[in-house]
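Severity: low
Component: inverse-folding endpoint
Summary: output formatting inconsistent between runs
Steps to reproduce: submit the following C-alpha cells with default settings.
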C-alpha cells in the first residue's frame, strides 16, 4: 500500500490531487492524495469534471485519441474548492472507443483559487506530464498510486516555494504597448465605442489607466504612451510598469516602414524584461492601421509575413497571436480584443469543446458565444469560412435582437432568421449575473428549434462552471 501524506489543515498551501476515470459504472475517483476528502465529495468532483469530457464526438471511436487533452479551472462551490483539471483519455482496448475518459484535478480552497490562475503554466505542465504516464496503457493500481503521489509531492513542493498573495478577486493587468502613433489609444476608444473621441486623439502622456469588467472580473488597462522618453522610463522602472502583466497587446503601424527596426528593438527589450521576471503573459501583436481599402495588396501581405517571423523569433517561449486591425473595421478590433481576453482564460479549450458538443446535437455549421459587450467568449465552426462569417455577423445580429426587443417586436429570448439555405438562431440567456448571447448557424429543414430546446438546458448546465472561472 502506498503511503499518503498527512497535510495539516493549518497549512494554508495544502492541496489535494484526485484522479477520476470513467468506468463501466460511471465516473469513479480512483486516487485521492492526501486522503482528506470524503468519498461522496470525491464522487461529486469526479462526476462534474468528467461530465465536461463525456459525450464528445471526438471521444467516440478512438480516432482522435490524442486530441482530447485540455485544461480548465472548475469551481466546486458546495465543497468550497476550486480545481485545475486536466482532461485526457486512457487507452484501453476493452473500453468503448478503445479509451476511457479521465481527469486529474488539483484542488485548493476556493479562497486560494488566485494561486491556480497565477501559476497555471507551471502546474499544468506537471499535470500533463503525469497524465502522459497514465495515457497509453492500463497500469496496476499500485503503480497508479505511486504516480499520483509523486505528482502530489511535486505540487506541494512548488506551492511551498512560490509566494503568491491570497486574492478573493482576480485583478488582471493588460498592457497596450507600441511606438508613438502606432494606434493604441484609437484602438481602445474604438473597442469601447467612444467614436466621438477618435478625432481628438493626442499623443498619450505617460500611462493612462482604465478599468473594465468582463464576466465579473476587473481588467486594468494600461495604455503606455509610445514616445521615446516614456519608453525609456518603462524600461528603467520595469518593476512598476511591466511586472505582473497578465496580457500584452503590442501595436505596430503597418504603414510606417521606417520605424520597423525601432519597434523590433523596443519589443525585444520588453520580452527580455518579462523573461527576467519569469513571466510569460500571452501576447497579441496588432498589425494596425491595415485599413480595408489596402488590406488585400500583395505588398502588405508579404510585409506582414516578414514581420510575423521576426516577432516570433523575438518572443520564443511566449504564447503569441497576430491580428490585422483597423479602426475602420470593427470586426478586426473585436476579433483581436476577444482573442486577447480568450488567451487569458484557462477554460477556452473546454468552452470550444462544449460548443462543438452542442453543435453536433443540432448538426450546426457554427456556434458562437458573446457577452453583453459583444466580446467573443468562444466559438466553434466546421471550417474557416463559416467561422469568419459567424464572427462578423454575430455583433450585428446582437444589435438587431436588442433593437427588436426594445420595440417589443421580440417577446422571448430567441430570434430566428431564415435565409435561402441557412437558419440563424440567436438566443439570449443568463448565467448568474452574466448576460450571454448564443448564435447558431445551421441548415434549413431540420426541426432545429425542437432540437435546440431539447439540448440547451444541458449545454447551459455544462458551461455554468466554466463561466464562473472564465478569467
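Observed output (run 2 of 3):
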Amino acid at each position: 500500500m502506498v503511503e499518503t501524506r498527512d497535510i495539516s489543515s493549518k497549512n494554508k498551501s495544502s492541496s489535494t490531487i484526485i484522479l477520476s476515470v470513467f468506468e463501466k459504472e460511471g465516473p469513479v475517483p480512483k486516487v485521492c492524495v492526501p486522503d482528506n476528502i470524503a468519498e461522496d465529495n470525491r464522487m461529486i468532483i469526479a462526476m462534474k469534471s468528467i461530465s465536461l469530457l463525456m459525450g464528445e464526438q471526438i471521444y467516440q471511436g478512438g480516432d482522435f485519441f490524442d486530441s482530447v487533452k485540455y485544461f480548465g479551472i472548475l469551481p466546486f462551490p458546495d465543497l468550497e474548492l476550486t480545481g485545475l483539471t486536466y482532461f485526457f483519455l486512457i487507452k484501453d482496448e476493452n473500453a468503448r472507443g478503445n479509451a476511457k475518459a479521465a481527469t486529474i484535478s488539483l484542488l485548493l480552497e476556493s479562497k486560494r483559487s488566485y494561486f491556480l490562475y497565477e501559476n497555471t503554466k507551471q502546474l499544468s505542465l506537471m499535470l500533463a506530464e503525469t497524465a502522459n504516464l497514465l495515457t497509453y496503457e492500463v497500469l496496476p493500481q499500485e503503480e497508479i498510486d505511486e504516480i499520483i503521489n509523486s505528482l502530489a509531492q511535486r505540487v506541494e513542493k512548488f506551492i511551498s516555494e512560490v509566494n503568491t498573495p491570497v486574492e478573493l478577486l482576480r485583478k488582471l493587468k493588460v498592457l497596450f504597448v507600441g511606438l508613438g502613433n502606432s494606434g493604441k489609444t484609437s484602438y481602445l476608444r474604438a473597442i469601447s465605442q467612444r467614436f466621438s473621441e477618435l478625432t481628438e486623439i493626442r499623443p498619450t502622456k505617460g500611462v493612462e489607466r482604465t478599468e473594465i469588467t468582463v464576466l465579473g472580473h476587473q481588467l486594468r488597462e494600461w495604455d503606455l504612451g509610445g514616445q521615446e522618453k516614456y519608453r525609456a522610463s518603462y524600461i528603467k522602472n520595469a518593476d512598476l510598469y511591466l511586472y505582473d502583466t497578465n496580457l500584452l497587446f503590442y501595436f505596430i503601424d503597418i504603414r510606417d516602414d521606417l520605424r520597423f527596426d525601432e519597434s523590433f528593438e523596443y519589443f525585444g527589450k520588453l520580452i527580455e524584461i518579462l523573461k527576467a521576471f519569469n513571466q510569460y503573459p500571452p501576447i497579441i501583436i496588432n498589425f494596425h492601421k491595415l485599413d480595408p481599402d489596402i488590406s488585400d495588396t500583395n505588398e502588405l501581405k508579404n510585409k506582414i509575413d516578414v514581420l510575423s517571423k521576426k516577432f516570433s523569433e523575438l518572443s520564443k517561449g511566449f504564447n503569441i497571436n497576430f491580428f490585422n486591425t483597423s479602426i475602420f473595421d470593427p470586426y478586426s478590433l473585436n476579433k483581436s480584443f476577444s482573442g486577447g481576453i480568450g488567451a487569458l482564460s484557462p477554460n477556452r479549450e473546454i468552452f470550444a469543446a462544449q460548443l462543438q458538443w452542442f453543435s453536433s446535437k443540432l448538426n450546426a455549421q457554427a456556434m458562437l458565444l458573446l457577452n453583453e459587450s459583444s466580446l467573443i467568449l468562444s466559438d466553434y465552426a466546421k471550417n474557416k469560412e463559416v467561422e469568419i462569417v459567424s464572427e462578423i455577423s454575430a455583433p450585428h445580429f446582437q444589435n438587431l435582437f436588442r433593437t427588436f426587443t426594445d420595440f417589443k417586436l421580440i417577446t422571448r429570448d430567441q430570434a430566428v432568421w431564415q435565409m435561402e439555405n441557412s437558419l440563424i438562431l440567436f438566443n439570449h440567456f443568463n448565467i448568474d449575473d452574466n448576460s450571454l448571447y448564443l448564435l447558431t448557424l445551421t441548415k434549413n429543414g431540420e426541426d432545429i428549434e425542437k432540437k435546440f430546446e431539447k439540448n440547451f438546458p444541458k449545454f447551459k448546465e455544462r458551461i455554468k462552471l466554466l463561466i464562473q472561472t472564465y478569467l
